[in-house]
Amino acid sequence: MTPRLRPASVADLDGIAAVEAASFEAPWSRELFAQELERPIARVLVADDDDDEVLGFACWWSVVDEAHLLRIAVDPRARRAGLGARLLAAVLRDATVGGCARVELEVGRRNVAALRLYIAAGFVEVGVRRGYYQHPPDDAVLLRAELVAPAGGPLAGG
Ligand SMILES: CC(C)(COP(=O)(O)OP(=O)(O)OC[C@H]1O[C@@H](n2cnc3c(N)ncnc32)[C@H](O)[C@@H]1OP(=O)(O)O)[C@@H](O)C(=O)NCCC(=O)NCCS
Fold first, then answer.
1. What are phi and psi of 22, to 5 degrees?
2. Which among 3, 43, 52, 114 would be 20 to 30 A from 132, CA to CA?
3. Domain hosting residue 46, numbered range
4. Given this model, what pLDDT does residue 153 score?
5. Which pTM was predicted?
6. Strands 102-108 and 66-74
7. Does 152 reside within a domain?
8. What is the CB neighbour count within 10 angstroms for residue 61?
9. What's the CA-to-centroid distance between 74 and ligand 1, angstroms?
C-alpha cells in the first residue's frame, strides 16, 4: 500500500523517534518532538503504513511568511521509493497554502541524498555556514525555495 501522509499526533512520537534515531548521528529526543507538537508555529507531518507504523516524517516551522524545514527523514527500509519527495512536496504545499513565500533549510554538504532531494524539488543554494555540524563534521549549505501562491490564494493581492 502507498504510505499515507497526515499530521502527527502524540501516538506517533515513538515511531518518529525511531526513524529519527535510525537517520541521524545526533538524533533529536522523543521529548524534543513532543515539544514540537505543542509549539504553535511548528508543523509535524508523518507518513505511515496500514499498521500506523511511522515510515517517515517532516518537521517545519512557519513564521510569518517564511517556513523553515528543521527535519525530514525516512526509515532506512523505506528509502528510495519516493517517500522523502512526497513528504517534501507536502511541506511545500502546506507552506504555500499557509501563506509562506519561501522555505529555507540547512543541509550538510556531504549529505548527497538530501541535497539531491532538495535540488530536485526546486531549492537553490543561498549560502554556506562553515563547520556548522559536528556529528559528523560538515559545512551547512543554506537552501531556499521560493513558493508561488495559487491564483486567488493567500499571497494574492499583497
Ligand atoms: C534524505 C531522505 C529523507 C530521502 O528520502 P527517500 O524517501 O529515500 O527519498 P526519495 O526516494 O523520495 O528520493 C527522491 C530523490 O532524492 C534523491 N536521493 C534520495 N536518496 C538518494 C541517495 N541515497 N543517493 C542519491 N540521491 C538520492 C534522488 O534525487 C531521488 O530521486 P530519484 O529516486 O528519482 O533518483 C533519506 O535519505 C533520509 O531519511 N536520510 C537521513 C536523514 C536526512 O539526512 N535528512 C535530511 C537532512 S534534515
1. -80, -10
2. 43
3. 4-146
4. 55
5. 0.94
6. parallel
7. no
8. 16
9. 8
Question: Measured between alpha carbons, how far is residue 158 from residues 25, 41, 65, 94 in Å?
Answer: 42, 22, 12, 19
Question: What's the DSSP call for residue 12?
Answer: G
User: Among 132, 88, 90, which residue's Cα sits nearest to residue 107?
Assistant: 132
Helix 30-38 vs helix 13-23: crossing angle, to nearest 10: 130
Distance (angstroms) between ligand 1 centre and the Cα of 39 equals 27
What is the number of domains present in the chain? Answer: 1
Each residue of 82-112: pLDDT tens digit? 999 999 999 999 999 999 999 999 999 999 9
- Ligand 1 atom nearest to CA at 73: 39
DSSP assignment string, 33-88: HHHHHH-TTEEEEEEE-TT--EEEEEEEEEETTEEEEEEEEE-GGGTTSSHHHHHH
Cell of 79: 528509502
Domain-embedded: residue 73: yes
